[in-house]
Amino acid sequence: MPPKSQLYLFAALLVAAVASAFSGRMDPYFLDVALGVGISLVLAASLNLINGFTGQFSLGHAGFMAVGAYTSAMVTTVLGPQLGASAAVLQWAVFPASLILGGLLAALAGLAVGAPSLRLKGDYLAIVTLGFGEIIRVILQNVEAVGGARGLVGVPNYTNLFWTFGGAAVTVYVVWGLLNSTYGRGFLAVADDEVAAEAMGLNTTRYKITAFAVGSFFAGVAGGLYAHLKGYLNPSGFDFNKSIEIVVMVILGGMGKHVGVLIAAVLLTVLTEVLRKFGDYRMILYSVLLIVLMLTRPQGLFTWPLWKRKAA
Predict the structure, then answer these.
(1) Cα separation of 73 and 232, whole Å?
(2) Would residue 254 be called left, alpha or beta, if left means φ above 0 and alpha means ψ between -120 and 50 degrees?
(3) Which of 6, 29, 98, 285 counts the most CB atoms within 10 A of its CB?
(4) 68, 219 contact by CB (below 8 A)
(5) pLDDT in tens, 218-247
């Protein structure tokens, strides 16, 4: 990784820490929106690795998010208190550990769905990942240990600006670093022409599974942040509509366009809040705006890449 990129990461973490220190002065509503934007950045950047840079089409990102959300919430609400951890230890040690654990279990879920299904392509892969997401939702809905259909209540509010935007900065850094590595060339080769990549001796299945695992990990981290922001989890919050919401961010920003996807994640999250004043007509207006944007900018709103391909 170039030293400059590490400097950018350190600067982003520092800004997030300073902003978090002064977040008590912010209006609670605007703070909630800002935290939602940060979580959307993590989700969009992680899905862009799968759908944008590796050329797959996953519709199950909400399922990986759910795995991370419930895992992280159970660690901080059940496991941590059982171990006798104090409030400070729970917030500054158990909580970040729960995010990592949630991400790891989500990555394992990504491997579980990826290994048998990533030999599929296009619509077939989309259907499999969609089915996986629904399986996760139904399982959570029927497991009483995590609240079942009633949902999981009492999740502590540990998510702040530092954890949220720090997580977003790390996600962008890791994805950007992967794409600028030798391994990242494999992702791009798969996206450009999978048949040609296989003919050149690349194990395309391995690259797709790796992209799925990394993307799923950060989706799990985003789920943990979401759980400790809302304080309540319900399986219905991770349904097909949630997956579509994340996919729209990637498509609207421009598939494989790192900066564009991040900007689209911010715009769509803020747009959802702006349209709340229209009440029941909110989703109709939201859908109409998306249709207009897709008709006028099918290549995405923002088409410049943060990462540029170098000539061989």
Answers:
(1) 9
(2) left
(3) 98
(4) yes
(5) 999 999 999 999 999 999 999 999 999 999
**Does residue 273 belong to any structural domain of this protein?**
no
Helix (H, G, I), strand (E, B) or coil at 233: strand
Q: Which amino acid is at 118?
A: L
Domain tally, the chain: 1
Distances in Å between the alpha carbon of 39 and those of 129, 222, 227, 276? 21, 6, 11, 19
The verdict on residue 104 lying in a domain is: yes
Give 232's strand partners: 153
| Distance in angstroms (rounded) separating the CA atoms of residues 300 and 297 | 5
The answer to whether the beta carbons of residues 171 and 225 sit under 8 Å apart is: no
Angle at 259 between CA 255 and CA 169, to 5 degrees: 115
> Closest by alpha carbon to 6, among 181, 174, 168?
174
For residue 228, give its domain range: 3-239
The pLDDT of residue 309 is above 60: no
Q: What is the pLDDT of residue 254?
A: 87
Domain assignment of residue 218, yes or no: yes
The pTM (predicted TM-score) of the whole model is 0.93
Instruction: Give domain status of residue 205, yes or no.
Output: yes
Long-range contacts of 166-169 (CB under 8 A, 24+ apart): 166/12, 166/13, 166/16, 166/17, 167/38, 167/42, 167/99, 167/218, 167/221, 167/222, 167/225, 168/38, 168/41, 168/42, 168/45, 169/9, 169/12, 169/13, 169/16
pLDDT tens digit sequence for 32-69:
999 999 999 999 999 999 999 998 889 999 999 999 99
The span from the CA of 57 to the CA of 14, in Å, is 35
